[in-house]
Design brief:
single chain; 197 residues; mainly alpha; two-stranded antiparallel sheet; 6 helices; 2 strands; disordered N terminus
Length: 197
């Protein structure tokens, strides 16, 4: 029995390492590596954020991220009664419309199509939850989704700014990353205000 376990365990580990991510890009050369994010509050293993270095995948992921930020913020504004959260959501709409414009301009100069704004399955599910939430729950759901989305966006822009394959887009990513970091800082302040209220 001991010998069979010694043989099976490494095989299972190799199989797990070889498993392809379910929501990752279909293009085999779209990712160059992965960065782990913090584990969840329930102690679950961290998910992997796939990092992209090619222009097409970067533009698509960035556009989908902006689209999620804008649409989730619009959904929040329809339900929330909290002035501080509403102000943050209004700021997110303006800021992510601007980052979308920056990337569109950079893509046009490179003769590339603008990023596809279709949401991932995970983004769509989070948006649907925010849209269906009542006033008592929407603020917390929105702020939680914003933190996750901004962490993913910061990883995406920083990684592409460092290792991307197109200099003009690297420059745009480098300009967007500090703005995303400021949003995370604002989220920290807002979360502390909500917790102390």
């Amino acid at each position: 029995m001991k010998y069979s376990l010694l043989i099976i365990a490494p095989v299972l580990m190799l199989a797990a390492c070889d498993k392809k991510p379910e929501n990752g890009p279909q293009n085999g050369n779209a990712t160059e590596g992965a960065a782990a994010t913090d584990s969840g509050p329930d102690g679950t293993l961290p998910h992997l954020t796939l990092q992209t270095t090619d222009a097409r995948t970067y533009l698509d992921k960035a556009a989908a991220g902006d689209s999620f930020e804008i649409e989730s913020s619009r959904a929040l504004l329809k339900t929330s009664k909290n002035p501080a959260v509403r102000n943050f959501a209004s700021m997110m709409i303006s800021a992510h419309q601007e980052s979308s414009r920056k990337l569109r301009r950079a893509a046009e100069k490179l003769k590339l199509a603008a990023g596809a704004t279709s949401l991932s399955q995970d983004q769509q599910q989070k948006l649907d939850v925010i849209k269906s939430a009542g006033a008592a729950d929407v603020d917390q759901l929105y702020l939680t989704s914003q933190r996750s989305a901004h962490n993913d966006a910061l990883d995406l822009h920083r990684h592409y700014a460092s290792d991307g394959d197109t200099p003009a887009l690297k420059e745009a990513a480098g300009a967007i990353a500090p703005v995303v970091q400021k949003h995370l800082d604002e989220l920290d302040k807002l979360t502390k205000q909500q917790d102390s209220a």
